[in-house]
């Protein structure tokens, strides 16, 4: 029995517009992810007696790093030929073009700086908490990609294939394709649930780097394999045995293996902040 007979997908990515101001699903999901992330990290900071000032500064660092890093990642890794000739267009973020790997590099740099300037604690103390809402944010971002009909999958005969009528830059748009955005969103949601369980039920934060390492596996190892079911994002990837997304995922997977090994072979530590009495 066939449960689906393909899904025709052609939503308007714009929810509504007020004059020149446009509200799109992608932006709404992005903002929702930050609000939920603030709430989740606040709960964890309260549990470990970290100050509210630290939390507020953390989200300023992360918000700026995510947007700047994701934009520069797209510019450098996917569109350098164009942007090197049109540098003014780098600032036109509203036209699209954000790369998750660039966002990841940006966040790593921001947390290194945040650890030096604000908490004066190990980066892992922050990362083991931050990556939990980041995994949830990745779910929302891929749902935003779905609403934009971008980052589409390769053709498939599976009954849940999507026909992306509004996708740009693909051949034969009438063919059903893998909903790779949903594949990633579901894998990231599973990662988020696992990380929440590790933190709240298993006290995994007592092993610095363990939650961060599992996050990297859940995001970038799955991303590596799902890339085989995607269309190339840029023309130059057609001649590559591994595309740019897969190549950029490998260092993160290697880092994950190191972090998990390190965490499991060292004794547990107390991660609470002494002296603070936050309510």
From TrEMBL:
Enzyme class, spelled out: transferase
Residues that, per the record, bind a 1,2-diacyl-sn-glycero-3-phospho-(1'-sn-glycerol): 142
Xref: InterPro entries: Lgt
Subcellular location: Cell membrane
Membrane topology designation: Multi-pass membrane protein
Membrane-spanning ranges: 23-41, 61-80, 92-114, 126-144, 182-200, 209-226, 246-264
Protein name: Phosphatidylglycerol--prolipoprotein diacylglyceryl transferase
GO cellular component terms, semicolon-separated: plasma membrane
Source taxon at top rank: Bacteria
UniProt keyword Lyase present: no
Predominant location category: membrane
Record keywords: Cell membrane, Lipoprotein, Membrane, Transferase, Transmembrane, Transmembrane helix
Organism: Geofilum rubicundum JCM 15548
Pathway connected to this protein: Protein modification; lipoprotein biosynthesis (diacylglyceryl transfer)
MF-aspect GO terms: phosphatidylglycerol-prolipoprotein diacylglyceryl transferase activity
Record's function text: Catalyzes the transfer of the diacylglyceryl group from phosphatidylglycerol to the sulfhydryl group of the N-terminal cysteine of a prolipoprotein, the first step in the formation of mature lipoproteins.
Known EC number: 2.5.1.145
Family: Belongs to the Lgt family.
Listed PANTHER family: PHOSPHATIDYLGLYCEROL--PROLIPOPROTEIN DIACYLGLYCERYL TRANSFERASE, PROLIPOPROTEIN DIACYLGLYCERYL TRANSFERASE
């Amino acid at each position: 029995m066939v449960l689906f007979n393909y899904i025709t997908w052609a939503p308007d990515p714009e929810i509504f517009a007020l004059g020149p101001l446009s509200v799109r699903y992608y932006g709404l999901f992005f903002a929702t992810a930050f609000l939920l992330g603030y709430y989740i990290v606040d709960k964890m900071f309260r549990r470990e007696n970290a100050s509210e000032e630290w939390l507020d500064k953390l989200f300023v660092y992360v918000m700026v790093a995510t947007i700047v890093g994701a934009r520069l990642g797209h510019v450098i890794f996917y569109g350098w030929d164009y942007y090197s000739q049109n540098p003014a267009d780098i600032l036109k973020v509203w036209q699209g073009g954000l790369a998750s790997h660039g966002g990841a590099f940006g966040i790593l740099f921001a947390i290194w700086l945040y650890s030096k300037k604000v908490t004066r604690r190990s980066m892992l103390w922050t990362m083991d908490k931050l990556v939990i809402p980041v995994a949830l944010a990745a779910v929302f971002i891929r749902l935003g990609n779905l609403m934009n009909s971008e980052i589409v999958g390769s053709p498939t005969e599976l009954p849940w294939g999507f026909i992306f009528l509004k996708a740009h830059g693909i051949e034969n748009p009438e063919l059903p394709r893998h909903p790779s955005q949903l594949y990633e969103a579901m894998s990231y949601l599973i990662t988020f649930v696992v990380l929440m369980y590790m933190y709240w039920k298993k006290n995994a934060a007592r092993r610095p780097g363990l939650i961060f390492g599992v996050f990297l596996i859940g995001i970038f190892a799955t991303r590596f394999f799902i890339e085989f079911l995607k269309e190339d994002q840029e023309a130059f990837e057609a001649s590559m045995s591994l595309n740019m997304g897969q190549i950029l995922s490998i260092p993160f997977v290697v880092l994950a293996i190191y972090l998990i090994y390190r965490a499991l072979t060292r004794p547990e530590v107390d991660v609470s902040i002494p002296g603070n009495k936050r309510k």
